[in-house]
Amino acid sequence: MVIQLSAQTTVHLCVGDTNHNFFVPYTLGSTYQWQVQGSSSIATITSGNGTEHIKIDLNNTGVFKLVVAETDVNGCNGSDSILVEVHPVPSPIVTAIGPTDFCEGDNVRLEVDSLYTSILWNNGQTTIFTYAFTSGDYFATVTDSNGCTNSSLPITVSMHPNPEANFTFSANCLEGPTLFTDISIIASDSLVNFIWDFGDGQIGIGNQALHNYQNTGVHSVRLLVISSFGCTDSIRKNIQILPKPIVDFSYNPLSTTIVNPIIDFTNQSINALPTIWDFDDSTFSFLENPAHEFTYPGSFDVMLVAADSNNCVDSIEHTINIYYELLLYTPNSFTPNGDGDNDVFLPMGFRMNKYQNYQFTIFNKWGEIIFSTDKTAEGWDGANAKTDVFTWVIILTDEMGAIRKKVGEVTLIR
After folding, report:
1. Closest Cα partner for 70 from 38, 37, 25?
2. Beta-bridge mates of residue 167
3. pLDDT tops 50 at residue 399
4. What is the 3-state secondary structure (H, E, C) of 281-347?
5. How far apart are CA 69 and CA 31, in angstroms?
């Protein structure tokens, strides 16, 4: 700024200005002496004294007179002066009306503390207030009625990004575990909470969740994600829960003994193929219709696992009984004559001590019971019986719980 002196002029300037220009019209051959009258702390002539053009630093507020004396080539003298009032610069204060940390999509209102002749925010706004939508330092430069200008201290605003919610899922079969996996992203901060609404009244938490649906059909699944600052986003996806396949199998024979322990299995599942047969004897098969030979007697819970074209899986078990062969030796005659040879009619067999129940009965030809025992070691000695043909019946429950019955005839010879 350059100021030309003229009589009765009062100039309003601002403290802190340096190298402020003052001058008078130049006359050839003249010399000029400048003087600051008043408090010497207000202003200092920094250069140009002796010429028509000087520079002054304005150090403090207050009023001083600037005087210039001119001596021309003829030795004639003249002077002029102006009053200079040095004003303080404004001290604007910016205040946030609300939190300066917020989530993407929100904002904070920033205001200057007073009205000024002009206001310019560093985002280009010129009103007493502005709205901050993004991260950064915000300040206002103001000019007061004296033309003095100053900027406020900056106020820092932080905008935290919202997450972008997304997820995947796998295995959408009835009553089977459906796995939901979060694949949400966020530009900064971190994701800390994951809340799942499975669309059937059930809720889950965590970045992965397993859920078993009990009804088929379309379910609307919602994932809500929350960042470490508390910003949120959510997404919905429809998932169709498919029915399980109908799994079953038949087998032949329905029961057998260890003498012939081969069972033929036939898959009877509807629209599903076997993935594995488990024969409950530490052996397995991947054939559709296998034949299996059991190597020892017992009850075997044979399981078929089958899957349909949607990879929905179900299973079924049937119990297969492989019985011990009932081996009983019963002579067709005996001679209870006391000679110690073939005196008792006693059935003999294999693993008879394992029987759960045992009943051995002798009938005469009129159907009358003449002997009965539940002890496998007790036989009929023919007491009080004459030579004749008798009917015997054995009813037993073997060690696997199977009820067996044997019937035959024996001749008593005296």
Report:
1. 25
2. 182
3. yes
4. CCCEECCCCCEEECCCCEEEEEEEEEECCCCCEEEEEEEEEEECCCCEECCCEECCCCCCCCCCECC
5. 8
| Residues linked to residue 234 through DSSP beta bridges, in sequence order | 224
Rounded percentage of the chain residues whose pLDDT exceeds 70: 98
Residue with tokens 């599903």: 272
Instruction: Tally the residues of the chain.
Output: 414
Q: Is 3 a residue whose pLDDT tops 60?
A: no
Taking alpha carbons only, the member of 328, 324, 346, 350 closest to residue 405 is 328
CB contact at 8 A, 345 and 410? yes
Give the model confidence (pLDDT) of 200-230 as tens digits.
999 999 999 999 999 999 999 999 999 999 9
6 — pLDDT class (breaks 50, 70, 90):
low
Largest separation between any pair of C-alpha atoms in the chain: 187
Q: Measured between alpha carbons, how far is 329 from 325 in angstroms, rounded to an integer?
A: 13
Distances in Å between the alpha carbon of 116 and those of 13, 39, 346?
A: 17, 29, 127
State both tokens at 249.
């199998």
Nearest to 9 by CA among 116, 94, 81: 81
Within 13 A of 83's CA, how many CA atoms are on the CB side? Answer: 7
The overall average pLDDT reported for the chain is 94
**Exposed, middle or buried, 302 (CB in 10 Å: 0-12/13-18/19+)?**
buried
The token pair that represents 142 in the structure block? 């103001």
Query: To which residue do tokens 């915000």 refer?
Result: 138
pLDDT at 5: 52
- Find the range with the poorest average confidence among 175-179, 279-283, 406-410: 175-179
Considering only CA atoms, which of 323, 320, 373, 315 is closest in space to residue 344? 373
Residue in 406, 407, 362, 353 with CA at minimum distance from that of residue 388: 362
- This prediction has a pTM of 0.64
Long-range contacts of 78-83 (CB under 8 A, 24+ apart): 80/5, 80/6, 80/7, 80/24, 81/5, 81/7, 81/37, 82/3, 82/5, 82/6, 82/9, 82/10, 82/11, 83/9, 83/10, 83/11
